[in-house]
């Protein structure tokens, strides 16, 4: 009977550990509002990629209550990329919670090959200048290689992850990585399951002292033996584009964080 209970406990724990985190990560596309978040005026994406990225931005933006927007332009009027972003926000009034609300925007100026990222309201605090610099550095290689779909996907996912990490801490810390949290959960669950299965068959009364001859204790020999030295290395991310951070205020009076650069 006890073993049956242990097996049921194993199934329950593994179900909770697997289903709940995966549900939190994947979310549900139906929960996201169907709105236009990809404005590919420069024609960098195929219709299929545009639709897929728009769905992803809707889904992830709903979970963070922030519109995640992409704007591309050939910039026929040769405007500054930061001004283009600010004017877009003023004119289109995006925002998950309200018009002119929580929003993060990535703007590509294809004429001058400039990029600008801006965070408004909630995103201004969770995606400050430093975090927007991190996002820009992560996608700059894709942009330089012409992999715009890959860059945009990485931007959406990274913004989504950073929006879940409280301001003032390093969002790339391993403690905030989903895979690490899942690994810890499985580890704790595994220990709990092992403990229940171990104790399911009754208490074990035999221990290390049971067969020991207490009349002749003592250490026969002790020594240390050098085996080997292990050296590890860590890759340091480097940006392939120049850039600078700094936000501002739109003509409509909406302050924002910012990061700009070339690609």
TrEMBL record:
Residues 230-263 are annotated as: Disordered. This is TPM domain-containing protein. It comes from Paenibacillus terreus. The lineage of its organism: Bacteria, Bacillati, Bacillota, Bacilli, Bacillales. It holds the Pfam family TPM_phosphatase. InterPro entries: TPM_dom. It comes from the Bacteria. Gene3D superfamilies: 3.10.310.50. Residues 252-263 have a biased composition (Low complexity). Residues 38-156 form the TPM domain.
